[in-house]
TrEMBL record:
It holds the Pfam family Glycos_transf_2. The lineage of its organism: Bacteria, Pseudomonadati, Pseudomonadota, Alphaproteobacteria, Hyphomicrobiales. PANTHER family: GLYCOSYLTRANSFERASE (PTHR43646), GLYCOSYLTRANSFERASE 2-LIKE DOMAIN-CONTAINING PROTEIN (PTHR43646:SF2). Its main location: membrane. Residues 3-154 form the Glycosyltransferase 2-like domain. It is found in: Cell membrane. Keywords: Cell membrane, Glycosyltransferase, Membrane, Transferase. Gene3D superfamilies: Spore Coat Polysaccharide Biosynthesis Protein SpsA, Chain A. InterPro entries: Glyco_trans_2-like (IPR001173), Nucleotide-diphossugar_trans (IPR029044). Signal peptide: none annotated. It comes from the Bacteria. GO terms for molecular function: glycosyltransferase activity. This is Glycosyl transferase family 2. GO terms for cellular component: plasma membrane.
Amino acid sequence: MISVIIPHLNQPEALATGLAALAAQERVSRPFEIIVVDNGSHAMPEEICARYDNVTLLHQPVPGPGPARNLGATQAKGDILAFIDADCVAAPGWLAAIEDHFESAPDDALIGGDVRILQRNPQRPTMIEAYESVFAFRMKKYIEERGFTGGGNLAVRTWVFRKVGDFLGINIAEDTEWGLRASSMGYRVRYEPTMVVYHPARRNFAELATKWDRHIAHDLDEIKRGVNWRSRWTLRALAVLASPLAEIPRITVSDRLRGVRARGLAMVGVVCIRLYRGTSMLAAAMGNENARTAARWNRS
């Protein structure tokens, strides 16, 4: 059995879409259960979950997707745990890809897949959709070069999850830490390109800025542990400010965009976000960190 675990917080419409996509999975031969773990929503998604016989709804009062996933894992009956986020939509062959990979590679302990942007109108993407189609969720790079994958598209053998241990709490990038911990224990994550989920783009620039505020806060905490951190951080900020021109080839050849308009919008997006990131990093180097937060996981 495969146990699908979904942390949820105040995203009932997205959850309904995601559960419908899971109900419509193709070519999967194993039975599967779905465990939705609500993490303190204004209203529990009871009616949405009750539409499906194989969905169990739990409540985790400890905030954060990590504790929510952990509770789901403790209640799971499957020998494979498949983690997906409430705002993600699984491609029709998502579960079949997980099943096929573990059956064909019995020595593989955990896998991560491709995360693509769910464009509302692929013929006319917004600037944010075009930008994130190219630059968000570089899962293949994270898996093959850095040894971790995102918690929104992760599958692991249950016994391996028990060995590695729980995800950590809200004040850390819990999926990154868990993946690196698994790798350090010898459980290497493998990339499975046919394991595809779709993630909606952020709705506006403010949401993108919030995402980068969180990443900047995490990175700053890490670099401060070393010597000469301020100089190294400033150099990194200047490199970010100078980087958009180097992205022209990537945007030009990307297979996730169609047409000149979409590629132009992606270029505008990368200039805007790199300018924001670089100036925010410089402000942090000068001690202006009061606007930063790493304590929210819900983007809504």
